[in-house]
Amino acid sequence: MTARAVALSIVASLTTSTSSFADIQPGNCARAANYSENKRGFSMLVIQNGRTVFEHYANGGSADSRCKIFSGTKSFWGIAALCAARDGLIKLDEHVADTIGEWKNDPQKSEITIRQLLNQTDGTEPAPHLHSESIRDRNTAAIQLPLVAAPGSAFAYGPSHLQIFAEVLRRKLNGRSTISYLDQNVLSPLGLTSLNFKKDGRGNPLPATGFELSAREWARLGELVLGHGNYQGKQIVPANLLGQAFVGSGVNPSYGLTFWLNRPAPNAREIDIEKELDLKWQLAHWIGICICRAAPPDMVVGLGSNYERLFIIPSLNVIIVRQGWSAKFSDAYFLRLALGR
Hints:
Blueprint: H1 3-16, H2 26-38, E1 41-48, E2 51-57, E3 67-68, H3 73-86, H4 114-118, H5 138-143, H6 160-172, H7 178-187, E4 212-213, H8 215-226, E5 230-231, E6 234-235, H9 239-244, E7 260-261, E8 269-270, H10 273-278, E9 289-290, E10 300-304, E11 308-313, E12 318-324, H11 331-339
Parallel strand pairs: 8-9
Antiparallel strand pairs: 1-2, 1-12, 3-4, 5-6, 7-10, 10-11, 11-12
């Protein structure tokens, strides 16, 4: 089955599914909030059926407090990529070398697709050093990185992949700013302003990280997902394209196009995603794993370091935001409490 066919089936299932789970109960949320607070959490927000059913702040947090969401930033750029596909600027399965001409004569890099950049399976060195503020031109540095695996053969999480995509988008826009494109097509429709793009010396953004959002602001991305690409009456991304974001790869079925997935649940091994990402990419295991066996398999997650989380569960029509300081934390236990499982 092609990725497009899988995406269409996912969209159909999300549109028509009815959940066997009960409505979210405030008492269960309070137990989850207490656990989160004891693990240095400072915000928890639960929205179901468009209504806030629970909201809790602690440890100095407040409804207006913005928090670094770290890699949660990636998902906003993932939506921008889908907007670019909507606008005909890119095709997800086109070769990157069609735009990055420097790759045309490389037998392996010439086979890399935009989809592989977005699901981090292109094989490029992950290059965490790209986070450094001292790099004058991250885009150029990224496209010059070597491959550490054949395209499509491994999941190697890091900032390099989206940085290369940022250069693809920059060239596709023919002089228009990638930041302006993201703002006009994603951020502004969601009412998000004054964000940090961690620009380098050439003005290139760092798509891997950087945004700071309140729980209520981050939840707007969840509303877009639950709305099948529609936010407050505006269709930002066509539903069939949005579905592409929730299709995993053969080497990591739990990661789509910048979103983490719980699709292997309940018949999978629960892991701490952050601990697995701390391993060298060659040692990490991504087959047969899930975030939480007790959570519905249609759950998708915007995930940032320090256990910053945007949980989106279409079959429950629910959004759960959790933010906090760095501390030992279990997504699976937290979700069991919140869902009453």
